[in-house]
Amino acid sequence: MTTSLAEILHNIADHTETILHILNDPGVPLDVSQRMFSHILLEEKENTSKLELVRGEGPTLLTQKNA
Fold first, then answer.
1. How many distinct structural domains can be found in the chain?
2. Tens digits of per-residue pLDDT, 10-21?
3. Are 17 and 25 in contact (CB under 8 A)?
4. CA 62 to CA 32: how far, in whole Å?
């Protein structure tokens, strides 16, 4: 099953929002923030692989995210 570019970009946007929330909320416990960062890092590695499949032969302005 192929992931669409829109889904990949949506995931990246969600991760960005989550990271900003964690960084800006001093009430987030350290263990929770560490687990969230680890989870997001794993998913972003997957997103990078999916972007490589979507972009095919060469990067475009939307798909040039690097690992």
1. 1
2. 999 999 999 999
3. no
4. 31
The domain of 30 spans 5-55
Whether residue 63 lies inside any domain: the answer is no
Q: Which two tokens stand for residue 30?
A: 């350290």
pLDDT, one tens digit per residue, over 6-56 is: 898 899 999 999 999 998 999 999 999 999 999 999 998 888 888 888 777
Distance CA 55, CA 5 (A): 9
Distance CA 51, CA 67 (A): 10
Whole-angstrom distance, CA of residue 23 vs CA of residue 50: 27
- Tell me whether residue 25 is in a domain: yes
Residue 61 belongs to a domain:
no
